[in-house]
Amino acid sequence: MMTKPPQSRGGGGGGGGALGRRGFAALLAAAVIALALLCLFYGAAFAPTLRSRRLPLQRRFEAVPADLALSSLPVCDARYSELIPCLDRGLHNQLRLRLNLSLMEHYERHCPPAPRRLNCLIPPPAGYRVPIRWPRSRDEVWKANIPHTHLASEKSDQRWMVVNGDKINFPGGGTHFHTGADKYIVHLAQMLNFPNGKLNNGGNIRNVLDVGCGVASFGAYLLPLDIIAMSLAPNDVHENQIQFALERGIPSTLGVLGTRRLPYPSRSFELAHCSRCRIDWLQRDGILLLEVDRVLRPGGYFVYSSPEAYAMDPINRNIWRKMSDLAQRMCWQIASKEDQTVIWVKPLTNECYMKREPGTLPHMCDRDDDPDAAWNVPMKACVTPYSERVHKVKGSNLLPWPQRLTAPPPRLEELGISSNNFSDDNEIWHSRVIQYWKLMKSEIQKDSFRNVMDMNANLGGFAASLRKKDVWVMNVVPSTESGKLKIIYDRGLLGTIHNWCESFSTYPRTYDLLHAWLLFSEIEKQGCSVEDLLIEMDRIMRPQGYAIIRDKAAVINHIKKLLPAVRWDDWSSDVKPKKDALWSGDERVLIVRKKLWNQTL
Predict the structure, then answer these.
(1) Local structure of 40: helix, strand or coil
(2) In the predicted model, is pLDDT for residue 156 greater than 70?
(3) Which ranges does the record mark as transmembrane (predicted)?
(4) Could you report how far apart the first and last alpha carbons of the chain are, in Å?
């Protein structure tokens, strides 16, 4: 059980008590009162709760003795049912952070210091139900799961979403594609003269970045084309848009083009998309457009649907002239311009960059700048040149999808990984995934999983082995191994960089399956808490969701003692796996299912 502060005793004590005892008792009481006042004063600044929110003070986890199990954890107040700890603007105010609102710093990550982390379980909202399964979820979700309907009324003329009884429906509209994202996508393919009017261009367009994505209907209608989009938006005035996207089962994440690089390596996307995304691309010498340039592949496209591209009023014409000039200086060329949309294309080589006049802005990035460094790295207003290899081969030299999923990517050599080791890794993870599904076979259905996260993704082998299942995988690469993320993108998969000593940038209850391979051992080496990570996993895992934890036996034994406390004891399996080339010694596989509970349980 969790230790609790000692309670004061009532009653008077024995008869005839000496004056000395009474004096001592009075002094002791005064000391306790003084200590309580000090705690109240300093606790307002350093306690793990926010004074204005009146959440009961929770103690941090203490080490669980070897012979004891932790039976319960407190439940957070209902107002925290949508808490995102590192994107909590209430916390920003409490900590008196001086953030530049014009640069969108208030939408960037600012994590609570250790003493202020909550040590309680995030409750589901009242009436929460197990989410509607994919593919039905693309078009409808339970209103009780995300009880926010303001977008339905605000965007009613744009067909973002419609409230329909106990459900919210998604007709597929958007600010610039009222008639449907599917028709808009066909139009883009026709603008680029792609074969058969398909935007995937024979598998050469696979990874897309959609900035200011709304409820991610653009990304939803790319999926039938075997195109996977990272739909990106901040929790701004439309703060539940990404929550809706994830509830629908569409790949998406919280993020903003602000002051830090996006957590993706260079040359990750074949196409970037902005449909009325309301981003000032001209600010700070074009630094935000240069960030898009950094993550676009050679020959990649930037699709821009916005009034600046077509409106004839003086203000929009002036913006268009300046943006066209910036794009030209970045060596972008217009591939097509029709109606409300312009599509620029990025050069395949460094040739245009080398022909620019001396002193042209934006300047080229310094030779010692690492374009793949993307975890808490400030953006830079410079053009990222290609490596000698990319310049020579005139592009990324990637195979079309799906061949690129299992073919060794050219950038493997930058990590010193051989093609044989890459292929062996694929085979090992294919075998491991087969074993995992055999262990869960009696408990899961074909549609049990949609949103999957690999919390320590390595080269993406786990996700690649799930290709024939109707899921998408957020491949998370620890910040200490961030170089591996470019291999994941070169395979046609999605992912991000993260430090698991901090909270992840997503809403509660957004993933059906979490996979953690040796992750707990790694964070312990960093001096971080196993228990904190479990609480974070519980926050982002859906009720009746699963976690596959593969780690050292001692770690697994410790986690098993905590399962009742986090309410992951609905079903579990604990086995010793087969040895393979990735075997770290003394490993076990623990698979658990989270209970569906409410605050009354």
Answers:
(1) helix
(2) no
(3) 24-50
(4) 18
CA distance linking residue 494 with residue 230, whole number of Å = 7
- Asked if 143 contacts 163 with a C-beta cutoff of 8 angstroms, the reply is yes
DSSP, res 422: H
| CA–CA dist 227, 202 (Å, integer) | 11
- Residue spans of alpha helices (H) in 296-384: 314-329, 351-355
HSE-CB for 211 with a 13 A CA cutoff: 26
| CA–CA gap between residue 398 and residue 231 (Å, rounded) | 23
Note whether residue 64 is domain-resident: no
Instruction: Check whether 544 has a pLDDT greater than 80.
Output: yes
pLDDT value, residue 158? 67
Rounded Cα distance between 83 and 115, Å, is 17
pLDDT value at position 151?
73
Residues 393 and 388: their CA atoms lie apart, in Å, by: 9
The confidence score (pLDDT) of residue 18 equals 39
Is 80 exceeded by the pLDDT of residue 19?
no
442 C-beta neighbours (distance < 10 Å), count: 8
Q: Does the pLDDT at position 481 exceed 50?
A: yes
* Residue in 358, 384, 356, 357 with CA at minimum distance from that of residue 369: 384
Say what the pTM is. Answer: 0.89
Check pLDDT > 80 for residue 207. yes
Adjacent-strand bridge partners of 230: 209
Q: How confident is the model at residue 347 (pLDDT cuts 50, 70, 90)?
A: very high
Q: Considering only 58-62, 393-397, 561-565, 567-571, which range has the smallest mean pLDDT?
A: 58-62
User: Whole-angstrom Cα distance, residue 384 to residue 294?
Assistant: 6
Q: Contact, 86 vs 62, CB < 8 A?
A: no
- Among 365, 393, 421, the domain-final residue is 393
- Residue-wise pLDDT tens digits, 279-297: 999 999 999 999 999 999 9
Contact at 8 Å (CB) between 71 and 569? no
Query: Per DSSP, which regions of 306-450 are E strands?
Result: 333-338, 341-345
Helical ranges in 330-418 per DSSP H: 351-355, 388-393, 403-406
pLDDT of residue 2: 36
Tell me, yes or no, whether 539 and 585 share the same domain.
yes
CB 199 within 8 A of CB 185: yes
Quote the number of domains for the chain: 2
Q: Which residue has 């024939």 as its token pair? A: 468
Contacts of 278 (CB under 8 A, 6+ apart): 212
Q: Tell whether 10 is covered by a domain.
A: no
Helix (H) or strand (E) holding 590, with range, is: strand 587-593
Write down the mean pLDDT value for the chain. Answer: 88
Mean pLDDT for 523-548 is: 96
Contact 265, 239 (CB under 8 A): no
Element spanning 285, H or E: helix 283-295
- Cβ neighbours of residue 28 closer than 8 Å, sequence gap 6 or more: none
pLDDT, tens digit (0-9, with 9 covering 90-100), for 436-448: 999 999 999 999 9
User: How far is C-alpha 340 from the geometric centre of its chain's CA atoms?
Assistant: 31
Residue 389 sits in the same domain as residue 466: no
Q: Is the previous residue joined to 408 through a cis bond, with omega within 30 degrees of 0?
A: no
Per the structure, the complete domain to which residue 343 belongs is given by 194-393
